[in-house]
């Protein structure tokens, strides 16, 4: 037995789940994704989302409404007569008529250990906060922001120098496997849900909101503690990319680790990209010059001398 699905997703994070559901033999009645966006330096071209590109490769029907609030769009969605909607990083709010149209409602793949890190940037905020574990959850969707009951969970470790991209990729793979399992359990009637209040009582996890990352957060303040700076660098890699100024040019920081060290914040303490912070020092492990490609510290230093005493920051 297979289910009739509507898949709703947009970025590359969602693609493995769409592919896995298709390979599992489920009938995907339609794929909803964000409309094509301007791309390129001048924004003269429009590019389809990664989900749309994969859906068309698979021969699936694609819909890209700007909003789902209108009665016409809601009627078109209901006419698909889906058993369930699968939502993974779609990017549009789903009104109540959309959530209630499928026979089994909507299931969401969310990349955090709820109720911790509800909201827009759960991966980045988990790394920034120093969490050593995150996870993928399949949850039932309701009107609140990431407040629905949870059915399945897979934990994913966060290493001390893991970047958001690396954690993103692990969670994306976990989402694919977990959602296929959720469909199997939905078919045989064994999918069970636990409220987030019950999860919080059982685990001690408190509600935490993962606020959208603002551009102003990306500039490194070397007066902050080294551990905080390193976590933020890793959390914001590759996007939006933490940065500092070196030799009058912006330098993007892609990976870092906190180390022992003392000195005036923002000054290099050695010739290998160890920079003093307000407390301790930050070892820059991967960086990227403006207009260039990212490289590890050794590769960067082959083309640039950064002796002890060099100042980082404006």
Question: Would you mind describing this structure in some detail?
Answer:
Helix content is 28%, strand content 27%. The protein is an alpha/beta fold and 314 residues long. It has a 7-stranded mixed sheet with strand order 5-2-1-6-7-9-10. Strands 12, 13, 14, 15 and 16 form a 5-stranded antiparallel sheet that branches. A hairpin with a 4-residue loop joins strand 14 (274-276) and strand 15.
Beta-strand proportion: 25-35%
List SSEs in N-to-C order.
EHEEEHEHEHEEHEEHHEHEEEEEH
The helicity comes to 25-40%
Integer-rounded radius of gyration: 22 Å
Structural class: alpha/beta
Task: Report the uncertain regions.
Answer: none
Number of DSSP helices? 9
Q: What's the number of extended β-strand segments?
A: 16
Biggest beta sheet attributes: 7 strands, mixed
- Give the termini separation: 62 Å
Comma- or semicolon-separated keywords:
single chain; alpha/beta; seven-stranded mixed β-sheet; 314 residues; 9 helices; five-stranded antiparallel β-sheet; elongated; 28% helix
Topology at a glance:
Layout: E1 4-9, H1 15-23, E2 27-32, E3 37-39, E4 45-47, H2 50-57, E5 62-63, H3 71-78, E6 84-88, H4 96-100, E7 106-110, E8 116-119, H5 122-128, E9 133-140, E10 150-157, H6 164-188, H7 196-203, E11 208-210, H8 226-235, E12 242-246, E13 249-259, E14 274-276, E15 281-289, E16 294-296, H9 297-303
Parallel strand pairs: 1-2, 1-6, 2-5, 6-7, 8-11
Antiparallel strand pairs: 3-4, 7-9, 9-10, 12-13, 13-15, 14-15, 15-16
Helix pairs in contact: 1-6, 5-8
